[in-house]
TrEMBL record:
InterPro entries to which the protein is assigned, alphabetical: Homeodomain-like_sf (IPR009057), HTH-type_TetR-like_transc_reg (IPR050109), HTH_TetR (IPR001647)
Keyword DNA-binding: yes
Protein name stated in the entry: Putative DNA-binding transcriptional regulator
Gene3D superfamilies the record matches: Tetracycline Repressor, domain 2 (1.10.357.10)
Species name: Actinomyces slackii
Keyword terms of this UniProt record: DNA-binding
Length: 230
């Protein structure tokens, strides 16, 4: 019985047959893949990354990604060794998005001159470490769920250095003697606290971050005032 193969995949195979293959496990597209193939592969990664952000690792399947990317099911299996490989690339894409956000903030902060008030410093750090808008529940649920998936966990761990480096640039220019890991931990911890207690996520993170930065710079430490979410 003949096996039916997606036409676009068949064409891609024909186009790359005579070309050199990439070294296994490099994580990079085949050196012989056509620009159209690269675009298709990237669209699949972005679809998987969005699915991962919304539903966590358990919500990512070849079928759900194919539907989201608007491609055939065979395309999602042709470009990746398996679901774990796809999850790993989706995780790398997500962490790169978060790192790029922090890098944009770092670029903006480094263009500033003169001292900044404590609330301005906190605002810049929040923009570098917290999504601009919610819903935050899904964001933190998928971060926690990442620990249940080895390929996603590995991807987030691999990309963490780039994120830390960008936040470190922000801190250095702001003159705040705090480690980037501490800032991220305080923001994430405050966000989870706010979510569990029905408080405003950004306002709660801003308050705890203000305490951290104030203490590190020898400034008076403010009291925490609960802000309910709307």
């Amino acid at each position: 019985m003949a096996v039916m193969v997606d036409a676009t995949i068949t064409e891609e195979i024909m186009e790359t047959t005579a070309l050199t293959q990439v070294v296994p496990d490099s994580g990079l597209p085949d050196s012989g893949t056509t620009p159209r193939g690269n675009d298709r592969r990237q669209a699949i990664i972005e679809a998987a990354a969005a699915q991962l952000r919304e539903s966590g690792p358990s919500g990512v399947s070849h079928r759900s990604v194919a539907k989201r990317a608007g491609c055939s099911l065979s395309a999602t299996t042709y470009y990746f060794k398996g679901l774990d490989d796809l999850l790993h690339h989706a995780g790398l894409h997500n962490i790169s998005l978060w790192a790029a956000r922090a890098e944009r903030v770092a670029d903006q902060v480094e263009s500033l001159s003169g001292p900044l008030r404590i609330e301005q410093r906190v605002s810049h750090l929040l923009r570098a470490t917290l999504p601009a808008q919610g819903p935050y529940m899904g964001h933190y649920l998928q971060l926690i769920a990442a620990g249940t998936s080895a390929p996603v966990e590995q991807a987030y761990r691999e990309g963490r250095q780039r994120l830390n480096a960008a936040v470190s640039r922000v801190l250095e220019h702001l003159g705040s003697p705090v480690e980037p890991e501490m800032v991220i931990a305080v923001v994430d911890g405050a966000a989870v606290t706010a979510l569990s207690e029905g408080r405003d996520v950004r306002a709660t993170a801003a308050q705890y971050l203000t305490i951290l930065i104030s203490a590190a710079n020898g400034l008076p430490v403010p009291q925490v005032v609960e802000t309910r979410s709307t």
